[in-house]
Amino acid sequence: MANDHLLNLLSDLIGDARKAGADEADAIVADGTSLSITYRLGKLEQLERSEGGDVGLRVLIGKRQAIVSSADRSKEALKELVERAVAMARTVPEDEFCGLATPDQLAKSLPKLDICDDTEVSAETLIERANACEEAARAVKGVTNSDGASAAWGRSSVAIVASNGFQRSYSSSGSSLSVSVLAGTADEGMETDYDYSSAVYFADLRAPDDIGKSAGERAVKKLGARKVASQKVPLIFDPRVARGMVGTFLSAINGASVARGTTFLKNAMNTQVFGKGITIIEDPHRHRGLRSKPCDAEGLANAKRNLIDAGMLTTWILDLRSARQLKLAPTGHAARGPGGPPSPSSTNVHLVAGTDTPAALMSDIKSGLYITDLVGQGINMVTGDYSRGAVGFWIENGQLTYPVSEITVAGNLKEMFAQLVPANDLDMRFGIDSPTVRIDGMTVAGT
Question: Domains along the chain?
Answer without folding.
Answer: 4-219 (3.30.2290.10), 225-447 (no CATH)
